[in-house]
Specification:
263 residues, alpha+beta, 3-stranded antiparallel sheet, 7 strands
Length: 263
């Protein structure tokens, strides 16, 4: 009887320890720090090998030793045979053709050899950012008969009195809102390309371009409000700062039956 009671006490003590461990874990989940970077290490927690029994490995398969030999590895150029590697759209990607001279025919005249074919190799290359400066040269004309001086006006820009071309404005907004490239990084990229502009100027250009797009946004939103069925989604994001932490914010994009989307 004493032995059975002792075994029962040990079993109850183990249950108490397990229940206490579960209670402590529940308290940590309810009142502890919520962070994915912090993982509390519990010495009582079992590792994976204790939870899932390790499989029994089968007996190793007998092997037979044979004489070793060496085989020459076939070297293949992955950039060759471009027709078999359609990794780009020729209608959209500019291609620079570079013709290589054959050193075997160096010094020979054209009637001493014949070109019977060609092989093509493609290499993916990168060039500096395609930011250019448009230089408009406007001649000043003086008519000898009337002594009148005239000069053509510069082409009007999308932003009155600005140095930014419409293509630059478009690329600025696409890089920021489509590819999530902040304006300060775009400023550094322009500086590396030899273009010196101020960072506030980029901010002013972005604000002016957004103001030009507001009528399009209003038209899309009017179409959505007039739709018979409106779909909406909620996406949680972190934006701004409040007491040193990022605040919870939300995107609510809406979609109408005329394929217009806004938020």
């Amino acid at each position: 009887m004493n032995a059975s009671q002792a075994a029962l006490i040990v079993d109850l003590q183990q249950q108490i320890v397990a229940l206490k461990h579960q209670l402590d874990w529940l308290k940590r989940q309810l009142f502890g720090t919520k962070s994915e970077r912090f993982v509390a290490l519990d010495p009582q927690q079992m590792h994976l090998g204790e939870v899932v029994p390790l499989p029994v490995l089968a007996a190793p398969t007998p092997v037979q030793t044979v004489a070793t030999h060496q085989r020459k590895q076939v070297m293949r150029d992955g950039a060759a045979e471009g027709e078999a590697l359609p990794f780009f759209d020729e209608s959209r990607v500019p291609i620079e053709t570079i013709t290589l001279a054959n050193p075997e025919v160096a010094g020979l005249s054209a009637d001493q050899f014949e070109v019977i074919g060609q092989k093509v190799t493609f290499r993916l290359a990168q060039r500096p950012a395609a930011t250019v400066v448009l230089k408009y040269v406007r001649p000043v004309i003086k008519r000898l008969a009337t002594q009148k001086i005239s000069c053509p006006s510069p082409p009007s820009g999308v932003i009155e009195g600005s140095r930014a071309d419409v293509s630059f404005c478009t690329g600025l907004l696409v890089d920021k809102f489509v590819y999530h490239l902040p304006l300060y990084r775009q400023h550094l990229r322009l500086k590396d390309a030899g273009i010196t502009v101020s960072r506030p100027w980029l901010t002013q250009i972005a604000q002016a371009c957004i103001a030009l797009l507001e009528p399009i946004y209003d038209s899309q939103f009017d179409s959505i409000r007039a739709s018979r069925v409106i779909a909406m989604d909620e996406t949680a994001i972190k934006a701004g700062r409040h007491q040193g932490k990022m605040k919870a914010a939300y995107f609510w994009p809406v979609f109408g039956d005329q394929d217009a989307a806004a938020r």
